[in-house]
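Before relying on records like the one below, remember that each one covers exactly one chain. Contacts with other chains, cofactors or solvent are not represented anywhere in the record.
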Amino acid sequence: MIKELKGKLPPDILKVYEEAGITELRSAQKKAIKAGLFEKKNILVCTPTASGKTLIAEMAAARSITSGDGKAVYIVPLKALASEKYKEFKEKYSGLLRVSISIGDLDSKEERLADSDLIICTSEKLDSLIRHRASWLSRVKTLIIDEIHLLNDNSRGPTLEIIITIMREIVKGMQLIGLSATIGNPEELAAWLKAELVVDDWRPVKLEKGIYLDGEVEFYEEK
């Protein structure tokens, strides 16, 4: 069992991680816990792809829900990714967390989500829910934003900035978790989010650079 999580999450949740083959936490996950993940601190995680960012978000959501603090909303940039996360989380936390997805009609309050624990949606959908004054939004205590570097995107950035700002007003003391593999200005973004910055360069597969030509790759030698 993951010793760092004992006493922080219920045994049933820890069993889920154990059955998924997670026996040791990765470097970024340990840093996030040390930075205050379980003390409801805002956390900005900037680590490579497949380094364990999603589990950091899952642990924050599980803490919020199982402690009775409140709901968790997980924002992703694309509907396809939302469907993928929904399928993964629904299966993974079956019988423990009530997982729902909201990516459809932008003209709906989605009051059915009042009975859900973990809600997966796009930023555009959450923006719509805020505009329609969905009654359950005040019970969201953890907001997770995947690919948070899209704040710098001309099309999606303004919507993300608005929902972060408004949700902070709706829910005082809400925990915000930002995830990204590519942030050009992590310190500046962490300051705006009032978040602890977690940076780590560990990756499961070594990253090598090279040039592909005529069916062969010549890798650069490390200096």
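Residues 101 and 120 are 5 Å apart (CA to CA).
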